[in-house]
Design goal:
With about 140 residues, the protein is of the alpha+beta class. It has 2 domains: about 45 residues, N-terminal domain of TfIIb (Single Sheet); about 90 residues, GMP Synthetase, Chain A, domain 3, CATH 3.30.300.20. Helices cover about 30% and strands about 30% of the residues. The protein is built from 3 helices and 6 strands, in the order E-E-E-H-E-E-H-H-E. The strands form 2 sheets. The protein has a 3-stranded antiparallel sheet with strand order 1-2-3, with no helix packed on it. The protein is globular, with a radius of gyration of 17 Å.
Length: about 140
């Protein structure tokens, strides 16, 4: 199902040159990165790292929103370790997989599960990739 934007809240503008072996920057100048393919040992970052940071940051915001709607106070100290795997797929060339290890202190297991499920249903990254890539959540 196509989810269309009714009211734009923000538009990120970026420019990339050279692909995985180039440079990417934001129009506001706050982000300016050297890009390099994974595992080459050269300075720089890659799209998988950027996806991991972007998705996990967005997911935290979605957890807060879910917490408000579910009546669960999200404690300080929530942390997410993201693992984005790039690999070969038998039928399509390349594929991605995401694993998030989510640390939520001071909450009952049931509330942790409800927060993560609620975030998964609200996070734009999760919604954009739902049914397209493998996603796993480890909740501690």
């Amino acid at each position: 199902m196509l989810r269309k934007i009714e009211t734009p809240l923000y538009t990120a503008k970026t420019h990339t040159e050279g692909g995985r072996d180039g440079r990417g920057r934001s129009s506001d100048g706050y982000l300016d990165l050297v890009l390099t393919p994974p595992a080459l040992g050269r300075p720089g970052t890659n799209p998988e790292q950027l996806l991991g940071i972007g998705w996990s940051a967005c997911f935290m915001g979605a957890m807060r929103r879910a917490g408000t709607e579910l009546g669960i106070a999200v404690p300080k100290g929530v942390e997410i370790d993201a693992e984005v795997t790039l690999g070969n797929a038998a039928d399509m060339g390349f594929a991605l997989a995401m694993k998030m290890t989510i640390r939520i202190p001071l909450l009952a297991e049931e509330d942790k599960q409800r927060l993560v499920a609620g975030a998964h249903d609200r996070c734009p990254y999760s919604l954009a990739t739902k049914g397209n890539i493998e996603v796993a959540y480890v909740i501690t």
